[in-house]
Amino acid sequence: MSHLDPDPKITALQSSRILTRRTGWGKANPPRRSGSAYGIDDAQGSDPADGSRHNRGCAVDLTLFDLGTGLPVSMPSGYDEFSHSAHSDYTGGSEEQRRHRDRLRSAMEAEGFTVYPEEWWHYDYRDWQHYPILNVTFEELGP
């Protein structure tokens, strides 16, 4: 891959690591973790045989932070809030919340990611389906 088409595993991993240190939100979800949720009433569980966007190293969950306070900015819904207000096209919430969400989306799309329509915080790297399922932790992938 050239510098114009970054390896999504690196791009998403770097974003996830930064976010994990700041909030605990970053997800890689190796199949061994996803599999523990599979079969349980869990909206985020996925069949380990099928894998997911996250455990292919091509997805990241993230938000924006206020650099002055170090706190996450207000969005139209909370993180992992599975309601209509979490949708990327939700027209409710405040103007400021929608502006934050749209700013995040613009920045991620500029880097080759697309928003998952039901979760404003979830972004997939292009062609994620073509990458192999990873069964490794962040630590195993290295710095």
TrEMBL record:
Region annotation Disordered: where it falls in the sequence: 1-55, 80-102
Any coiled-coil regions, as ranges: none
InterPro entries, alphabetized: A_A_dipeptidase, Zn_M74/Hedgehog-like
Gene Ontology biological process terms in this record: cell wall organization; proteolysis
One Pfam family matching this protein: Peptidase_M15
GO molecular function term, any single one: metallopeptidase activity
Catalytic activity: D-alanyl-D-alanine + H2O = 2 D-alanine
Keywords: Cell wall biogenesis/degradation, Dipeptidase, Hydrolase, Metal-binding, Metalloprotease, Protease, Zinc
Keyword Hydrolase among UniProt keywords: yes
Keyword Metal-binding: yes
Protein name (Swiss-Prot/TrEMBL): M15 family metallopeptidase
